[in-house]
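Predict structure. Chain length: 111.
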Amino acid sequence: MKGWLLLGLAILSEVVATTSLKFFADTENRMTIVFVVLGYMASFSLLSKTLKYIPLSIAYAIWAGLGMALMALTGAWLFKEPLTIFHLIHLIGIGFIIAGVITLNLLASSH
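Prediction complete.
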C-alpha cells in the first residue's frame, strides 16, 4: 500500500511541475520555475522510493500513463485547451494500458 501512495504522490508532483511549465511559458514569471524544479525533484525522488515496493516496469507505466491522462485533463480544465475525440481516444488507450498493468501485477502477485 505504501508503494501505491508513493506512486500517487510522484504522479501528482509531476503534474504540478508540468502545469508550472505551462504557466511559465505563458507568463515568464520566474517564481514558477521553482515549482517546476521542486515538482520534478519530488516526482523523481518519490518514483525512486516507489521502486522498493513496485516493479520498475509497472511503476513507470502507471506513472507515465496517469501523468499523461491527468495532464490532458488539466490542460482542458485549467488552460481551456481543446479536448477532441482524438484526445478522448488517447485517454481511453492510456486507461487500457493502466488496466493491463494492474491486471498483470495482480496476476503476478497471486503466484
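Summary: The first helix runs from residue 2 to 27.
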